[in-house]
Recover the amino acids of this structure.
């Protein structure tokens, strides 16, 4: 009887410990009580290459956890650029309820850029970002019910040209969103080309009004 009672007490202690840290070392979906921060790591990998003198499309982020992998909120993370050009939106940010701290990053011409994240004596994290020149001319093929490169970027002052492929049925390029006033849209056609030269920074959405659920795209005009 003593052995059975001890076994039940041990099982109860294990269960309570699992619940306190979300189960499975704090990686579960249950409640998690954070302790002292011991871990700092990149939330995602390094960003894809981006364009000179432009902000990255998504912020950089790190996650801070305790020894049981429980997210720790309220931790101040210091950010700095070690090499390369560009700039950060702030020198510090604080982890949210999910233990995540973010920063907005803009790359310069010098490449690669290395951004350093640190907090006290925690392990540090470095992000490496390659910057490239944005294209000044972009070609998009208009096929039957698709655009070949529906989401792309072009340098301000650059031109995007849509070319209808051989045997196409009628399609058009109609702008749906972007900085006002929107550029002129194309006619509905099955051959030939249509071009737009962009002079205003921003993101432009477009589609074919005949096949709006199948043929959509966006253009980001950058420095």
């Amino acid at each position: 009887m003593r052995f059975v009672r001890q076994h039940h007490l041990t099982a109860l202690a294990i269960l309570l410990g699992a619940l306190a840290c979300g189960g499975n070392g704090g990686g579960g979906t249950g409640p998690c009580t954070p302790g002292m921060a011991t871990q700092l790591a990149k939330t995602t990998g390094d960003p894809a290459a981006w364009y000179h003198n432009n902000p990255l499309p998504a912020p950089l982020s790190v996650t801070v956890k305790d020894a049981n992998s429980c997210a720790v909120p309220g931790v101040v993370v210091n950010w700095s650029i070690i090499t390369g050009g560009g700039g950060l939106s702030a020198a510090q940010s604080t982890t949210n309820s999910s233990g995540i701290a973010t920063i907005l990053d803009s790359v310069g011409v010098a490449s690669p850029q290395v951004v350093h994240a640190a907090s006290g004596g925690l392990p540090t994290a470095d992000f490496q970002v390659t910057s490239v020149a944005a294209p000044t001319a972009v070609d998009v093929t208009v096929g039957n019910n698709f655009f070949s490169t529906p989401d792309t970027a072009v340098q301000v002052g650059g031109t995007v040209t849509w070319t209808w492929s051989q045997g196409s049925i009628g399609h058009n390029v109609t702008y749906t969103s972007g900085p006002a006033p929107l550029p002129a849209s194309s006619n509905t056609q099955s051959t030939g080309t249509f071009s737009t030269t962009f002079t205003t920074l921003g993101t432009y959405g477009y589609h074919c009004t005949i096949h709006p659920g199948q043929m959509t795209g966006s253009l980001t005009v950058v420095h």
About this structure: The chain is about 10% helix and 40% strand. The CA atoms of residues 138 and 160 lie 5 Å apart. The two ends are 77 Å apart (CA to CA).
